[in-house]
Amino acid sequence: MKIIKIIILLFISFFANAQVGGETVYQFLNISTSARQLALGGEVLTITDDINQPIWNPATISIDLDRKVSVNYSSFLAGINVGSISYASEVSRRFGVIHGNIKYFDYGSLIGADEQGNETGTFRANDIAVSLGYSYNIPRSNFYVGTNLKFINSNISNFSSVGVAVDLALLYTSIYKPYSFTAVVRNLGTQIKSFSGQNEDLPLEILVGGSYQLEHVPLKWYATVDNLQQWDISVANPSDQIIDLEGNITEAEVGFLGNAIRHLVIGAELFPKSVINLRLGYNFRRAAELKLQNARSFSGISFGFGIKMKRFKFNFANSRFHSATNVSTFSLEIDLDSNRF
Length: 341
What we know:
By secondary structure, the chain is mainly beta. The protein has helices spanning 2-13, 35-39, 256-261, 284-290; strands spanning 68-75, 81-92, 96-113, 119-137, 143-156, 159-172, 179-193, 205-213, 219-225, 242-243, 249-250, 264-270, 276-283, 301-309, 312-322, 325-335. The protein has a single domain, classed as monomeric porin ompg (Porin, Beta Barrel), CATH 2.40.160.40. It has four helices and 16 strands.
């Protein structure tokens, strides 16, 4: 129990000054590439039977993931190509399992311009992160601790940046309990080489989450509270502005409850252990910030399904960002261990 207390204190010690979207480098680290996770809202933390989950929560690494591989692809917003590959392998029965992941964002060809706005040609930009993860079961308990070590490279035209980061996680799960809960600290790290000679902050994120399997219904609920490192993450939606007859604009104010609900992501999985399962998720922050006035945009909603075929699992997700666009993600998982069949 002393180990558990130390880990909890470590989590609390990082509840410090950190920043949310748009103010840090390597923002792609906080965008999921797993179709299953995205269908459930994008920030699920307690899936224990998915080879893609450890990149979000390293404490979920277990022997059940040994020799499983997954390839994920998404045609993201504005033609950005996103993908990742995950694999896990048992080193030894004593040591356990190591999980590896490669994640990339290709932003394609962009138009360059000088300070006066004159076009200077095109350039390319991309991000890539390589991670290694490990989990350890605290003896005589249902608690697991895990960590990821990430090596990050980002390129914008002739400029490049290199960074390193770690994730820390604590998970409680048991095959005899219908619930699981976890706490995760993601992206603790620094730039080794910056774009301009001045180091920028990494997108630190602290999350807690849980899941509950209903007893008599094949339905599993998930909930995540994100960005605990910063209470006020609210951004007023321009659609909520009020313009009077003189043209004066009154910006909308986000209250305590409006900001609190923005930290919440929920999801539900129907028939989670079956050959075919259905998934639905809702991201409250995305819904609040991208909604349109007097129009239903269904922002924040995501849905998808999974199909299991012996060694293969196919997952699909559709994430609704705005009435003008949505994102589809595809994941294919392959079990390379023939002894499981």
